[in-house]
Structures are given as structure tokens and as C-alpha cells.
Amino acid sequence: MKYGIIIHYDEIGLKGHNRDFFEQTLVDNISEKIRVKSLKGRVKKLFGRIWIDLDDFACGHEREAWKSLCETTFGIAYFGFSVEVPSVEASFIEAIKYLATSIEFETFRITTTRTEKNFPLNSMEINQILGGTVLRNFEGKKVKLKNPDAEFFLEIVGKKAFGYVNKIAGPGGLPVGTAGKALVLISGGIDSPVAVYYMQKRGLKVEFIHFHSYPQTSQQSVEKVRMLTKKLTKFDPFLKLHMCPFLEIQKVILKTVPDKFRIIFYRRFMLRIAEKLAYKIKAKGLITGESLSQVASQTIENMTVIQQSVGIMPILRPLIGFDKREIIEVAKRIDTFQISIKPHDDCCTVFMPQNPETKGKIEEVLDIESKFSVTDLVAQGIENLSLEKITS
Ligand code: ATP
Ligand code: MG
């Protein structure tokens, strides 16, 4: 009997001739995390599944480590701690007996699937044989087809069969990297880390840019962004954070722009710098944590005026239709919430106007902007970028 983890994916199975690429990326992502976490296991593709070879049937701390690895790897629909046996009846019985000793249960069911339809027994017959095995060998157990304590799965694939108890849900989505790369504008708030989560989940490799007003704002507010980025390494172990000192640009805006337009201008410059960097690092899009009408800068009018500062690069706003309450729920689930709510002075809040414009007009904005050299300011922003590598 061999021990391991059987991993199933659903959506990537549908990708036609891209399927190989999706599967291979998932294998690579799992292998990378195994290295980072110093676990012992070998990953391979196997008949539309992924299999991680383990020396033993994982239990205790080791099991928890594998569980958390699989639960944070996008592309995994579900997985199970499994045994691999030859595709013969006697081995199925041996496998089920082994699995039944690995957990506590009263009620159970057996679910067999076969890809080889010419196997001498059909799924129902195998279910009956294995059900009988459990009833005979383990006292006081009862069959229960709906919501049993333990569901024993047997998957017969060619000359091999995989047995495991209970499916454990993965995070779903698509393997990180399969959708290419995008650059996220990350603040120290609640929203942008949640936006990153959703975009990593759809297969994007994400790099980060943060604009800070140090020394006008504290070092802690920058540290907070590092901590948030670090939290997100559980979904992608190697992240890049580009820091952009924004204070000098803000001072020019403060001098030249009427108060109520300040935020619009901050955002226009942030987007321009982000777009330039995005092209440099070969990112295909920008990501923000904006949600419609959450604050003045996120009315549809202001988002339009802000967006017109950049070219055709798409701006992905995965949270656009989310209520704050819904965003907070996810932030708690991915464990960024407690960091996000630590007090900090963001670069936009330090010079916050009393009554920000909620319906900016592009003509007015362009008229004001003609008073300063946009190109020089953006070039200055790009020149002063510094790169930090954040690993899990
Ligand atoms: P919260 O709304 O919880 O304060 P937030 O991250 O949404 O957090 P907002 O002020 O709503 O902050 O900003 C909207 C979006 O603009 C952010 O989601 C983020 O993508 C971007 N952004 C704001 N400030 C910064 C910053 N200092 N550096 C990089 N991006 C920023
Ligand atoms: Mg917000």
C-alpha cells in the first residue's frame, strides 16, 4: 500500500488544449509550496488528478501542514488523505480496513467510481462488498447514505485504485500564474488585500505597489502593508512589493489643485505610475480594492475621471459590487482583517479635504492638470520606486 494525497480539480479540467498548462502550473505551484514549507512529498500528474507521494499516511502536525497547503492552493477543488493500491478486490478490502481504523465514526457509506468499465465488478457491487467488510470487521457501525460520519471513497483508475475517507474542500479557482500577471495598488485598508485574494483565485500572479507619504506618515503604516502582503503569501509564496514615495508629488498637488479635487489627482497619479510600472514588469492589468460609491473617489463619475489618466490597460475591480460587510467577512477569513484595522495614517488621509468632489468633470480636471508637468512627476515616481521581496 502506498500513502499520499489525492487532489481533484474541476474547472481546469474544462480548458481544452490548455489543460496541460493548467495542470502543470498546479503541479509546479504545489511543488514550490512543498519546498517553502520544507515538507516531504513528491507531486505528480495522474489520470486527471494530482497525487502527492508521502512516506506515511499523514497524521498529527504533518497532516495539518498538508491540509493548510492544499486549502490555500488555488485550482484545488477537493482533496483527501489517501492510500494507493492495485486494482484488485483483495486490495480494496485491505484499503478500506486501513482507512476505517484511521478515523472515529459510527455511520458510514462507500462511494466507488470506476473509469475502467471493463472491471469485473460494477460500482454498486464493490460498494456492497466493502460495506460488508466494514460491518463485519468494526463493531457497531451503521450504513447511512445521507450525511454519514465517514464517506469512504474508492476511485478505480486503470491498474490503480485510490481510497480515502471524506473529501476536504480546497479553495477552488485557478492555479496562480495561469492568467498572467497584474499589479495591485495596495493601501493599508481592508479592501485591497481582499481584492488581491479574489484575483489570485482567478489565476493571476500579483505584484504590489504601495504609495506612502513617509516621513509625513509613520513607518508603521508602511510596515502594515508589508504585513498584509506577507499574509497573502499563503496563496503565493513569493511576492514583490514596490514601494513608491509619494510625498513630493502630493506636495505639488497640494499647491496646485483646489482642495476638493485632491483625491482625484492623487489617484490619477497613482494610476499613471502604476501603469508605467505594470508595463515594465509585463503585467497585463491593474487591480484596485474599489467598491462602487464606498467613498467620494469611488463614485462612478470619479472613477471615470480617475481612469482617464491611463491608457487601455484594464483596471480590475473585483470588489466593485461588494458591501463593506461582505468585504470584512472575507478579510476575516483570509486573516488580513486584524492587520487592516490597526490604526495608520494613509497617504490619502493625511491631506484629506473637508468636502471632496463627488462628480468630477474631466474638462475641469484637465484644465487644472495643465498647470504642472505630469510626465516629470510620473518619471520621478518611477525613479524612486524600491523593490521588496516578501516571502512566506
Ligand atoms: P479601505 O477602504 O478599507 O480604507 P482601501 O484599500 O479600499 O481600504 P480606499 O481609500 O478605499 O482604500 O482606496 C481605494 C483603492 O485605491 C484601494 O483599494 C487601493 O487599490 C487604492 N489605494 C488607495 N490608497 C493607496 C495607496 N496608498 N497605495 C496604493 N494604492 C492605494
Ligand atoms: Mg475602500
What would you note in describing this structure?
By secondary structure, the chain is of the alpha/beta class. It has two domains: 2-169, VC0802-like (2-Layer Sandwich); 181-391, HUPs (Rossmann fold). The chain is built from 14 helices and 15 strands. It has helices at residues 19-36, 60-71, 89-102, 123-137, 191-201, 219-231, 247-256, 262-280, 300-307, 324-333, 337-340, 347-350, 362-369, 374-383; strands spanning 2-8, 42-46, 49-54, 78-86, 107-114, 142-143, 150-157, 160-165, 168-169, 181-185, 205-212, 238-245, 286-287, 315-316, 386-391. Strands 1, 2, 3, 4, 5, 6, 7, 8 and 9 form a nine-stranded mixed beta sheet that branches. Strands 14-13-10-11-12-15 form a six-stranded mixed beta sheet, sandwiched between helices. Strand 10, helix 5 and strand 11 (205-212) form a beta-alpha-beta unit. Helix 7 (247-256) runs antiparallel to helix 8 (262-280). The longest helix has 19 residues, at 262-280. The chain is elongated, with a radius of gyration of 26 Å. It starts with a strand and ends with a strand. The structure holds adenosine-5'-triphosphate (ATP) and magnesium ion. The site of magnesium ion has 4 residues, from loops.
